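User: Here's a structure from my thesis project, written as C-alpha cells. My advisor, Dr. K., wants to see whether a designed sequence matches the one we expressed. Can you design one independently, without my sequence as a hint?
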C-alpha cells in the first residue's frame, strides 16, 4: 500500500477529512483569521466607530461584504483613505459583527437584547442576509412581553416580514397582557397603528382604549391616527360614557357617532375582533367550544368520525321548515374563521340540503353557505371570507330519506388560503370526483365498487376495472359530495380493443332538472374524452351511452371533473384500491370478454340501513 494512500486513510479515520481524499481544516482557518480581528498586524485600514479605532483588513472586509467591497474598492473617496469613520454603527454591535466577519461565528444568547437588535440592524445595513435571517430566527425564540415591541419596531425598520408576522402573532395571543405592560408605551406609532388595525388583536375594546390612552400620554407627539384605530362602536354605551368620555381624548362628535353606530348598525356589520388560530380547529372542547342547540349534543365535537351508525355517533335536529333552530355550536371565544369541515351521516346513499349562518351574539345571523337547493353527502368542505364569529348555526332543509338532519363531525378554522369561489361554491382546480372528496357512483354496474372514481387508469381488462350500463336502459350516475363550479370533465372509455362508443352527458344540482353538457351521440369516440363547457354549478353527472360497435353495453373506466393532467390524477385520490373494495377478483391474464349485458355484472350495493331514524 502506498504511503499516500495510507495517509488518506489516516485522515479519514481521524475525522479530519469529510470524504475520501479531501482534507478540511476549516476550524484552524477560522481561528487564524479570527486572530487578525482588531489586530494591527497586516492591517491596511482603520475603522473609527464611536471614536474608537478598530484595525481591519480591506481584502477580508471586501470578500465578506458587498457593502465594504463597494466602499473600499468601488472608487469612492474611502477607497484611498486609511481611516474610515462609520457614523451610524453602535460600537458594541459593530465589534460583534466584525468578529463574525473574520470568524464566521457569532454567539448571541449571552448578549443584551438591545445589542442583538443593533447587530441585526448592522447585518441588514451591510448586506449579511444569512446572518440577518439567523438573528431573526433567534429573536423568534426569545419573544416575550418585555421585548416584543422593540423587536417589532426593529423588524418594521428593516422590512423583515417574517419576523413582523411572528411578532404580530405573539401580540395577538397576548393582547390583554401587552396593553398593560410598560414596554407597550415604547412602541412606535406606525407599529401601533398596524397592530390596532388587525382584527386578530383581540381584547375587550375598553381594554384597548385604556392601553391606547396610556400610550398617548407617554407619546405626546402622537396624532389622531392612533385613537382613530380604536373601534369605539364595539364598546358598550356604558363604557363609552363612563370610560371614554372622561378620558378627554375623543372628540364629542366622534363619541356621538360611535353611540349612533352601536345603536343603529347591524351587529354583524361592526368591525369585530377575534382570536386567530391558523389551521387549528376552534370548534373543539379543548378550545372551549360546545353544542348549545340540537339533539344528542355530546356527539358532534367528540372528535370521533368513524364510530357511528343508525343509533349513535351524531347530533341531529328535526326538519320542520321555516323557523328551525338547527344545530348551534358556540365557540369558546369570538374567533376568526373562513373554513368549515363537517361530516353528514353517510352510511347509505342519502343526501342532505342545508345552510350555515354565523353570529356574534345569536341575534344577528349572517348566512355564509346556502346549499338548501343542492344535494350534499358525506364530508363537506366549505369556505367563505374571514369572519369573526362565536356562534355557528347549521340548519338542515332536506333529507332524501326522512325528516331529520344528521351531523356526525364538525370543525371550524381559519386557513391561510381559500380556493377560488363563485358566491359560496368552490371553483376547484383539482379533481373532486374522488372518494376523498365524498363523490360516489350512485347508478351503474361494476365488479369493483367505486372503480370509476378510484383514480386507477391502468389496471382494467375484459372483466374488471370499469363501470357500465345497458344501452337503452339506465345510465352511469356520479354524485359529487357538494356543489362545485365545473367547466370541464374527462373520462376514459374502455379501450382494450378497437371498439368505439357514442354517448351524451348531462349535469344537475338536484337530480330532477338536467342540463346538457355534451352530445356525442353522432360521433364515434374512443379512449380518453376531454369535455369543456361553460361554468355551472354541478352535483350530479349523468353519462348515457347510446352506441357500442362491439355489443350493447357502455363501458367507462375512469371519470374526473374538472379535467386534470395525468400527473395530478392521484393528488386527491388513493393510489391503490383496498382489497375490501374488490367484489370479485379475476386474473388479468384470463382472456374473458366484457359482459354483453349489464345484468351479467354484479350491481353496486350499499346497505341502506333503517331509514326511520
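Assistant: Designed independently from the structure alone:
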Amino acid at each position: 500500500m502506498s504511503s499516500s494512500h495510507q495517509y488518506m486513510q489516516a485522515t479519514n479515520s481521524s475525522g479530519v477529512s469529510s470524504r475520501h481524499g479531501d482534507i478540511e481544516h476549516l476550524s484552524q482557518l477560522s481561528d487564524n483569521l479570527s486572530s487578525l480581528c482588531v489586530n494591527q498586524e497586516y492591517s491596511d485600514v482603520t475603522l473609527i466607530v464611536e471614536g474608537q479605532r478598530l484595525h481591519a483588513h480591506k481584502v477580508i472586509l471586501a470578500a465578506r461584504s458587498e457593502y465594504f467591497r463597494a466602499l473600499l474598492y468601488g472608487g469612492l473617496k474611502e477607497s484611498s483613505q486609511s481611516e474610515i469613520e462609520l457614523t451610524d454603527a453602535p460600537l458594541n454591535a459593530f465589534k460583534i459583527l466584525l468578529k463574525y466577519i473574520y470568524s464566521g461565528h457569532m454567539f448571541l444568547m449571552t448578549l443584551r437584547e438591545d445589542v442583538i437588535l443593533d447587530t441585526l440592524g448592522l447585518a441588514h445595513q451591510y448586506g449579511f442576509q444569512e446572518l440577518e435571517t439567523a438573528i431573526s430566527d433567534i429573536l423568534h425564540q426569545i419573544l416575550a412581553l418585555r421585548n416584543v415591541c422593540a423587536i417589532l419596531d426593529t423588524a418594521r425598520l428593516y422590512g423583515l416580514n417574517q419576523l413582523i408576522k411572528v411578532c404580530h402573532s405573539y401580540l395577538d395571543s397576548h393582547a390583554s397582557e401587552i396593553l398593560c405592560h410598560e414596554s407597550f408605551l415604547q412602541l412606535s406609532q406606525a407599529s401601533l397603528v398596524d397592530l390596532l388595525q388587525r382584527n386578530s388583536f383581540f381584547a375587550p375594546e375598553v381594554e384597548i382604549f385604556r392601553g391606547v390612552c396610556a400610550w398617548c400620554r407617554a407619546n405626546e407627539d402622537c396624532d389622531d391616527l392612533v385613537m382613530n384605530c380604536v373601534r369605539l362602536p364595539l364598546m358598550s354605551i356604558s363604557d363609552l360614557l363612563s370610560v371614554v368620555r372622561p378620558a378627554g381624548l375623543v372628540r364629542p362628535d366622534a363619541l356621538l357617532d360611535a353611540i349612533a353606530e352601536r345603536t343603529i348598525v347591524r351587529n354583524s356589520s361592526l368591525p369585530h375582533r377575534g382570536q386567530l388560530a391558523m389551521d387549528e380547529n376552534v370548534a373543539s372542547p379543548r378550545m372551549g367550544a360546545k353544542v348549545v342547540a340540537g339533539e344528542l349534543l355530546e356527539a358532534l365535537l367528540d372528535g370521533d368520525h368513524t364510530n357511528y351508525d343508525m343509533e349513535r355517533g351524531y347530533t341531529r335536529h328535526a326538519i320542520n321548515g321555516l323557523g328551525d333552530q338547527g344545530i348551534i355550536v358556540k365557540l369558546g371565544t369570538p374567533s376568526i374563521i373562513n373554513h368549515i369541515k363537517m361530516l353528514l351521516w353517510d352510511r347509505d346513499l342519502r343526501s342532505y340540503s342545508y345552510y350555515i349562518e354565523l353570529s356574534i351574539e345569536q341575534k344577528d345571523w349572517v348566512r355564509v353557505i346556502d346549499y338548501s337547493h343542492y344535494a350534499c353527502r358525506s364530508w363537506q368542505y366549505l369556505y367563505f371570507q374571514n369572519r369573526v364569529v362565536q356562534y355557528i348555526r347549521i340548519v338542515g332543509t332536506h333529507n332524501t330519506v326522512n325528516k331529520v338532519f344528521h351531523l356526525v363531525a364538525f370543525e371550524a378554522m381559519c386557513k391561510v388560503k381559500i380556493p377560488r369561489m363563485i358566491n359560496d361554491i368552490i371553483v376547484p382546480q383539482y379533481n373532486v370526483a374522488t372518494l376523498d372528496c365524498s363523490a360516489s357512483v350512485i347508478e351503474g354496474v361494476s365488479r369493483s365498487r367505486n372503480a370509476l372514481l378510484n383514480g386507477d387508469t391502468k389496471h382494467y381488462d375484459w372483466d374488471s376495472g370499469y363501470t357500465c350500463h345497458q344501452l337503452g336502459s339506465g345510465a352511469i350516475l356520479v354524485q359529487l359530495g357538494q356543489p362545485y363550479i365545473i367547466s370541464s370533465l374527462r373520462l376514459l372509455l374502455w379501450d382494450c380493443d378497437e371498439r368505439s362508443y357514442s354517448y351524451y352527458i348531462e349535469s344537475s344540482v338536484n337530480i330532477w332538472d338536467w342540463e346538457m353538457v355534451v352530445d356525442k351521440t353522432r360521433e364515434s369516440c374512443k379512449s380518453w374524452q376531454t369535455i369543456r363547457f361553460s361554468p355551472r354549478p354541478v352535483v350530479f353527472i349523468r353519462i348515457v351511452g347510446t352506441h357500442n360497435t362491439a355489443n350493447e353495453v357502455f363501458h367507462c373506466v375512469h371519470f374526473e371533473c374538472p379535467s386534470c393532467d395525468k400527473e395530478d390524477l392521484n393528488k386527491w385520490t388513493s393510489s391503490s384500491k383496498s382489497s375490501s373494495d374488490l367484489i370479485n377478483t379475476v386474473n388479468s391474464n384470463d382472456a374473458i370478454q366484457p359482459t354483453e349485458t349489464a345484468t351479467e355484472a354484479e350491481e353496486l350495493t350499499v346497505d341502506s340501513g333503517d331509514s326511520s331514524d
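When you compare it with your expressed construct, this may help: The first helix runs from residue 3 to 14.
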